[in-house]
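ingest -> fold -> write
write: protein_1
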Amino acid sequence: MSQLKILCLSNGHGEDAIALRILQSLQQHPAAPQVAALPIVGVGHVYRQHNIPLVGPAKQMPSGGFIYMDRRQLARDVRGGLLKLTWEQLQVARQWAKKGGVILAVGDIVPLLFAWLSGAPYVFVGTAKSEYYLQDEAGRLPRSSWFASLEGCFGSVYLPWERWMMKHRRCRGVFPRDRITTQVLQQWDIPAFDLGNPMMDGLDATSTLPISTAESDRTLTITLLPGSRIPEVYENWQRIAEMVQVLTTRLWQRSLLFLGAIAPGLDLDELQKTLIAQGWRLQSHPATYRLYTQRKARLILTQSGFADCLHAGDLAIAMAGTATEQFIGLGKPALTLAGKGPQFTPAFAEAQTRLLGPSAILLKEPQQALTVIDQLLNDPDRLQLISENGKRRMGTPGAAQRIAQGVVQCFQSSPKR
């Protein structure tokens, strides 16, 4: 049997990171396929860092992505070459298919659509949608308006045209992010497999940050997750820094440690400007992090200690997608704030609270953080509920290896129907 050739399509920093874990597991498979990646959004930093071959053009668009943008941002992307880039990327996928390759689509409808248009056999790892948006174990979730309730009128969070592409004869397998979504898709005769959520893989702490394992009981450690999409991440950081300032001012009697988990490719100098303007002083600047101080508080920015930031945090202040879900998957609460978008809009933030349930606490204003944190720290029963909820919704580690095995089996089996 000839070697399987898999092209991975993904559309964003978080999706790239998930896809990377699956590709690395595929490389370790006994029947290891030839793998390559085509990042549809961004330039695929994580692929480059881990020596996954890239094929085709990749470019950072002005909006940072095209799923949550408004028409003005769409116009900016079009002027920035979006249509030309999309056409060229699609041609790469089609050429891969003509040479006998197959497609691994990771993300949402965009890579799924590319996979279908390529003409190749494909599998789909759905990271963006979950039935938790519409229901939980107790039943349907209440919605704020009749218009919002229309979201569930098609019987699934996945729309009919998405389900059609999942049922297509060239779609060999679908790997949803949780059990409840898998069960719903299986009712539509879709080859869906419940193998877990790879978002929770690869999160082992590395101890690259100056965080003592014997931190004082009076030290509250807060992880900061501003997101990864340029340019909105810089506006998100302004909002997060405002909340940090509220806490450092009001909780002056308590030691505070803030851990800023910053995506590769972002400009740390731009983030530092906001901190300096608020009175933070740069104390040290080694290769892996920057340390700032103010009153009894410390703040660390790092682009290489992401897992350390997740594990060390008691809670998070978050305006991110995947990173927020991973933090909550560790059994911890996250305070979220809506931004201006294009991704982390009020609608996105509200939907995220449905996806993550009681683990995600949406604030209207940064000033609310003090009250909410005080309530959390004095309610152990609520913290226990949050811990159980996050682990149930996000699943256990090891999914990437299970999905890699499933991908190989799907492509080695005979075509369905």
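write: protein_2
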Amino acid sequence: MKLIIATIKPFKLEEVREALTGIGVRGMMVTEIKGFGSQSGHTEIYRGAEYAVNFVPKIKLEIVVAASMADQVVETITKTAQTGKIGDGKIFVLDVAQAVRVRTGETDADAI
């Protein structure tokens, strides 16, 4: 099993969710986060005063899938979330040692 962690722009969430559902992803966790990368934030003017916004709003997706499906999920997220502009996000893929469904006690592949 693989854990895929992806950060994307907030307005791309619904499009990415639909694309992942279309390839058979049955569940994911979504978190609103803030962060920065090479864009290093930006400045804004509020009530006449300029201030630095050091963290940019992002969405973090966490998806656990069978190892055989991981490449397809990464490719789908990459194609769907891409705008071609700075700040499109990152994707990380990690190994999952164990999974347990709390309600039923099912483990590993049966739990996802």
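write: annotation protein_2
Helices lie at 13-22, 70-81.
The mean pLDDT is 90.
pipeline exit 0
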